Amino acid sequence: MTPRAPDFYFPAPRSQRYCSQCGATLSREVPPGDNRLRDLCHHCGAVHYQNPRMVVGTVPVWEGRILLCRRAIEPRYDTWTLPAGFMELGETTEQGAARETQEESGARIELGALYTVIDVPQVEQVHLYFLARALGPELDPGPESLYARWFEPAEIPWDELSFRTVASTLRHYVQDRENGHWGPHHYSLGKE
């Protein structure tokens, strides 16, 4: 039996030990006037906020076929995924999704509308997938992919998908393709 795909890219409990402004040791407490635990520096007064990580990607399509990449990295090495990864500082969500698609598959795309927004609060992530139209069938996967391939919807390897957010996005795509409704879809994947 294939294990259920996790809904995250990396385990995410985060806490800072040292202040990025002065280097002093931080404490974890609720600041006055706040309602959540924060990393506080009693030396310089800085409050260090932790925010969700953004995972951005695409659902690239060429002549009705969907692009999937076989992962060459952990977690979930050697499973299928949509081209996606962590957004970098200084880029928009659209730029990040296009960059990740290029890096992981080498596909040339025209980015479409935002398609799924999936909150994954237990690992402090938000996953965003955009529809994308491939400008040709050529693929040239980068080092994070073993290879990339175009799949007819009926060929999607459901038992070999890397993450629940990928499986969920693909399920929406297949359903929307059948009924002509194209998202957007926004929901949360909680612990099950």
Overview of the molecule:
By secondary structure, this protein is α+β, with helices and mostly antiparallel strands. It has 2 domains: 13-50, Ubiquitin Ligase Nedd4, Chain: W; 53-188, Alpha-Beta Complex (Nucleoside Triphosphate Pyrophosphohydrolase). 15% of the residues lie in helices and 33% in strands. The chain is built from 2 helices and 11 strands, in the order βββββββαβββαβ. Strands 4, 5, 6, 7, 8, 9, 10 and 11 form an 8-stranded mixed sheet that branches. The longest helix has 16 residues, at 164-179. It is elongated and about 60 Å long. Mean pLDDT is 91; it is low at 1-13.
Summarize this structure briefly.
Helices cover 15% and strands 33% of the residues. With 192 residues, it is α+β, with helices and mostly antiparallel strands. It has two domains: 13-50, Ubiquitin Ligase Nedd4, Chain: W; 53-188, Nucleoside Triphosphate Pyrophosphohydrolase (Alpha-Beta Complex).
Percent range of helical residues: 10-25%
Low-confidence stretches: 1-13
Give the second-level CATH assignment, the architecture of the largest domain: Alpha-Beta Complex
What is the helix tally? 2
Number of strands: 11
CATH-assigned fold name of the largest domain: Nucleoside Triphosphate Pyrophosphohydrolase
End-to-end CA span: 19 Å
Largest sheet: 8 strands, mixed
The CATH superfamily of the largest domain bears the name: Nucleoside Triphosphate Pyrophosphohydrolase
What is the count of structural domains?
2
CATH class of the largest domain: Alpha Beta
**Radius of gyration from the alpha-carbon trace, in angstroms:** 19 Å
Range of strand content: 25-35%
Question: Structural class from helices and strands?
Answer: alpha+beta
3D shape: elongated
Order of helices and strands: EEEEEEEHEEEHE
Give the mean pLDDT. 91
